[in-house]
Every structure is written in C-alpha cells, then in structure tokens.
Amino acid sequence: MWIQTFAGIGYLFGSISPIIKSSLNYNQKQIARLGVAKDLGDSVGFLAGTLCEILPLWAALLVGAIQNFIGYGWVWLIVTGRTFPLPLWAMCILIFVGTNGETYFNTAALVSCVQNFPKSRGPVVGILKGFAGLGGAILTQIYAVIHSPDHASLIFMIAVGPAMVIIALIICLLLASYLMGVMLVEDLIDVSHNVVIIFTAILFILLIIPIVIPISLSFSQEPRVAAEEALLLSESQKQDPENSEHDDGHEVIVSEVEEEKPKEVDLLPALERQKRIAQLQVKLAQAAAEGAVRIKRRRGPHRADFWLMFFSLLLGSGSGLTVIDNLGQMSQSLGSNNTHVFVSLISIWNFLGRIGGGYFSEIIVRDNAYPRHAAIAVAQVVMAFGHFFFAMGWPGAMYIGTLLVGLGYGAHWAIVPAAASELFGLKNFGALYNFLTLANPAGSLVFSGVIASSIYDWEAEKQAQQHNDGQLNLASVLTSFLNMDEPLKCEGAICFFLTSLIMSGLCIIAAVLSMILVYCTKTVYAQMYGKSRT
C-alpha cells in the first residue's frame, strides 16, 4: 500500500506544472505536451511487465525508483536553476522517464499480491489501486505540512520520496520498528544489562530470519510433496460414483489444480508455488496415462475476449480521464472558482470506486459464479449518468457528476486487472496489465485532446465573436496587431454540453461491450467458481 501511494505521482502534475511554466517561460501548449509525456510514461509499461517476469520484484521496484529519481530529480535541478535548461523535447523525455517509474510500482505490487492472494483478487486489487488513486492527495497533504515557500520543493519530494519508500520498505521496516521500540523502552525504563542483552539477541534473530525461512522451506520440501500427493489422490476419489459407472476412470479438470491445491502451497513464494502446481499437474498427467483419471480441458477465453475488454476499458476509462483532465475548465465554465475542491472530491470518489468495485465484483464472482465484467457494466452505466449531469449543468451538477464519474472510473482499475488475471492467467499478467493501461492515454488523446478541446475552443470562439460583434475600438485593434490575445474562455453549461453527451453515449457503448464479454465468458467463470459454490 505504501508503494502504491507513490504510484499515483502522475496526479500531481497539475500541482507542479505552474512552477515549471513560470520558471521556464513555457506557454500552455508546451505544458500540454509535457502532460502528454506524463500520460504516456504512466501507461507504457511493457518494459516493467517484462522485467517483473525476469527479475525479482525488489529489483524491479529498485529500477522504478531509479527512473523516478533521475527523471524528476533532473527536472527539479533545471527548475531551480542548478543546471542548464534543456529543450522541450528533452524535458518531455525526463517527465516520461520519471513518471514511467510508476509502472514498476504498479506492476510489482499487483503481480505479487494477485499471486499471493489468488482467492481475493477483487478486494486486493481494489485496495492497491485505491491507494494509487489517493497518492496525489496524500503527497499534497504531506507537502502542506512541510509548508515550504519554494514550490519547486514539491518536485524534489516527488523525485526523492518513492526511492526512500522503496528502499526503506525493502530493507529495514521491521528492523527499524523494533529498534525504535527498544530505544523507547531503554529511554523510559531503567533496564538492566541482561535485558539489553536479550534485546540484542532478538535483534540478531530478526536479522537471521530472512536466511532461516528459505533454508527451512528447502529442508521441509519432501514432506510437503508427500502431503500434496495424498491430497491429490483423495480429491480424485471424491468424484461422483455414478459417473464412474459410465467412465473407466475419474474425470479431472487440469486447470482446477490451481484452485484445489493444498493450503500450505499458498504460503510458499510465488516461484516455488508455481513449481509445486506444475509438479501436481505432471503427476495428474501420469495418473491419466495409467488410466486412473481422465483429464478434461477447461474452455478458455478467446483473443476476441481480450479485445472486448480493451475497448470497453478504452471507452469507459477514457471518458472518465477526460473529465479528470478538464475538471478545472468544467468547474470554471459553471461559475466556480474553487477548482481544487472538485479535484480533491473526484480523487476521493476515485479511491472509493476502486475499493467498492473490487468488493462488489468479488461478490458477483464468488457468490454467483458470474463474470466479473458485469460489475464493469454497472460502473459504466453509472458514469453515463454522471456525464449526463455534467451536460445539463443543473445546480449541484458538478458535485453529483464528480461523484458518479469518480466512482465509475475508479471501479475500472479494480475490476479489469482482476478479470484479466482470471481469464488469461498469471504467467504474463504483468505484460497484459501494462498493455491494458494503454487504454487510458489512447482514450484521453482522442476524447480530451481532440473532441473536448475542439468543442471547447469552438464554443469559446463563438462567445468571443458574439461579445465583440459590432464593437471596434483602439484597444482591440492594438491587441490584434501585437498578437497579444488572451486564451479564449468559455462560460456556461454549453461549453461541455456536447462533449458530455458524447462521453455519456460512449459509456453506454462500453457497457454493451462489457455485457457481450460477460456472455462470452459465462462458461469460463462457471467452471472456475461454480464448483466452489456446491
């Protein structure tokens, strides 16, 4: 959860962009290009997914921390004048590299926790992604406590914070807690020398534990295997005796080995657990060759199911990110100057959507053996109503709209990773997850960068033309001659009326795609979870 908190540093770009703009004399178009680089860095995680399959997770986390430190650290040096400025394309690369460190945090945390808690994927993913959604608000609050007059120090905190947390969490969290307790006890209580010796002995025990655990597991490997074989045979004998009258042997589904494995296997490290499951499958195949059991292959998902998932995510999540990116202009067009209030609100609803979406989808899957994407369809319909409220511009529409869109957007990132791990397995989950995250910048690029911005500028130009129609004065002539026009601003619900209606329609289409995916994967989920209900 601590790691995931720093996987949300991309949400702080709106807070650091003003100081970058003023320090480097950038215009709004140049800042927008940095924003695109940030979105790409936050979503392009193929390298992170590959490295998480090759390297141990702590090494992948360290790579992400180094990228984050170099990217944002260099930006901080440039903004504070400690090094020479770079051209815009080089700044885009630095922002991309720094933000891309998030993908390592996301991938490592999700892959490890989905493997360690395979029967609680929905809640686990929801909690982790929820902390990523809250990351920006948490870091902003920490920065507010520091109360530094230098706004560039926030960039320094973004550069240094993740590296500090990753290293501290990997190496010495438990040890530091123990030492703090010991020092407090020794400071508050007059302890004898023997007690100090005991404390020191416990300290050495804590230092030795990381070595003792793998050694003990290696020595206790054979008894565990024997117990697993016994349990596998007992499970094969639990088949319906009526079926045995018609078949020469028992019928076993190979992929159910993952679900029916002994509880002790869940306590093993991920690589060791996969090795044990593979051994069970080999023994099952040998039993099938001898005629003891008959292997039945489970129907798996098709490639089309993955693309249904991707485009449903693109339409739903992309429309939500469009609101997040344009929330400042949306609130200003409706006459509100407290844009930070709505930014904070949608972050909170985003967090609650991720938590609630994970638990809600888990109920659908575990209690009803129904596809998890049914929950996504519900979230997308909720988002459609939220966009409709934005379009109408009624009193309180900003509050209701941020509530509905925030909840629905957050639910996407709790449910989709869990569903992908169920349908396509854990072997290449890191790569699959990072490919799915490309739906975010792809949707934002089209919906926000093309549709929303074009309609906003068009409405703003219409209002400016109506305002200046028939009015010609010396000031307007000089302004046009000197090319000093201020950025066009649009006022009223009309600014995002058409955009919000389009986003609402896209969410409905996304819900339809999700329900098609539900129909296509009903058999898969019934095979995976139907047995656990009986």
UniProtKB/TrEMBL annotation:
<feature type="transmembrane region" description="Helical">
    <location>
        <begin position="57"/>
        <end position="79"/>
    </location>
</feature>
<feature type="domain" description="Nodulin-like">
    <location>
        <begin position="1"/>
        <end position="170"/>
    </location>
</feature>
<feature type="transmembrane region" description="Helical">
    <location>
        <begin position="432"/>
        <end position="456"/>
    </location>
</feature>
<dbReference type="Pfam" id="PF06813">
    <property type="entry name" value="Nodulin-like"/>
</dbReference>
<feature type="transmembrane region" description="Helical">
    <location>
        <begin position="496"/>
        <end position="520"/>
    </location>
</feature>
<feature type="transmembrane region" description="Helical">
    <location>
        <begin position="196"/>
        <end position="217"/>
    </location>
</feature>
<feature type="transmembrane region" description="Helical">
    <location>
        <begin position="398"/>
        <end position="420"/>
    </location>
</feature>
<dbReference type="Pfam" id="PF23262">
    <property type="entry name" value="NFD4_C"/>
</dbReference>
<feature type="transmembrane region" description="Helical">
    <location>
        <begin position="86"/>
        <end position="105"/>
    </location>
</feature>
<feature type="transmembrane region" description="Helical">
    <location>
        <begin position="373"/>
        <end position="392"/>
    </location>
</feature>
<comment type="similarity">
    <text>Belongs to the major facilitator superfamily. Phosphate:H(+) symporter (TC 2.A.1.9) family.</text>
</comment>
<dbReference type="GO" id="GO:0016020">
    <property type="term" value="C:membrane"/>
</dbReference>
<feature type="transmembrane region" description="Helical">
    <location>
        <begin position="341"/>
        <end position="361"/>
    </location>
</feature>
<protein>
    <submittedName>
        <fullName>Protein nuclear fusion defective 4</fullName>
    </submittedName>
</protein>
<dbReference type="InterPro" id="IPR056555">
    <property type="entry name" value="NFD4_C"/>
</dbReference>
<keyword id="KW-1133">Transmembrane helix</keyword>
<dbReference type="InterPro" id="IPR010658">
    <property type="entry name" value="Nodulin-like"/>
</dbReference>
<keyword id="KW-0812">Transmembrane</keyword>
<feature type="domain" description="NFD4 C-terminal">
    <location>
        <begin position="302"/>
        <end position="462"/>
    </location>
</feature>
<keyword id="KW-0472">Membrane</keyword>
<dbReference type="InterPro" id="IPR036259">
    <property type="entry name" value="MFS_trans_sf"/>
</dbReference>
<feature type="transmembrane region" description="Helical">
    <location>
        <begin position="153"/>
        <end position="176"/>
    </location>
</feature>
<feature type="transmembrane region" description="Helical">
    <location>
        <begin position="125"/>
        <end position="146"/>
    </location>
</feature>
<feature type="transmembrane region" description="Helical">
    <location>
        <begin position="304"/>
        <end position="321"/>
    </location>
</feature>
